[in-house]
Design brief:
Helix content is about 65%, strand content about 5%. By secondary structure, it is mainly alpha-helical.
Length: about 260
Amino acid sequence: MKNIFEYAQICLQKSDIEEKLATTHLAWQKLQAGELSFHANQTADAISLTQFPARPELLPPREMPRRRLNAPNGVAAMFHALAHIEFIAIYLAWDILYRFRGLPEQFYRDWLKVADEEAQHFALIRTHLLSLGMDYGDLPAHQGLWEHAEDTAENLLARLAIVPRCMEARGLDVTPALIEKFQARNDEVSVAILTRILTDEVGHVAIGSYWLKWLCQQQGLEPEQEYRDLLKQFYKGKPKGPFNKEMRIIAGFSTAELDWLENA
């Protein structure tokens, strides 16, 4: 029986895109078939051993060129940026289950589900991108998402607060307006892809909310206060609004958390 941490190590430390997608889907299939072990026979390797493809070129967010949908190749550039977000999201899901040990089996099941869905999202976007005359890697991409993983590599509560409940939750705020823009263009393919991603991301943020609250309970911490403190420490402030309150509540945010986020 293959160990889930062995699959994680392959996905994190080998850079080939196709191998990463296939390994992720295989691990999910093994889980569904009851053929996956959760026994950790060694500690996690340093996060610095994570390997990424040679392309795209990764730039600091401030150096990324700004592109608009109505610019030449604007739609393709937007989907390239989205492809990169979903590709790094595969790494983020694998890393959280690989790096943090000794948790309930459901924790690992949940994050493997996230990894598999992120891999599906990436494949959908990449297919669409190819139809637009571009492939993933043809444009530079920002490295900010993975920097959050590096910053929280030693702190599971911080990882839960910053990645699913900050970075991924931002998608709940901005994707509905993006869907409306493509609806106005009568672009049904783009609408379908974005709607699928938005639906799944609600669940991903909800998983982050559940485990942050569970971990706080285990450690005798108050979840809302801990979330605020972690954002101040690791995010260096607050995420910018406006916030999709309805979707965030479905995804496990409290009204008190939303009030705090809105009142800078």
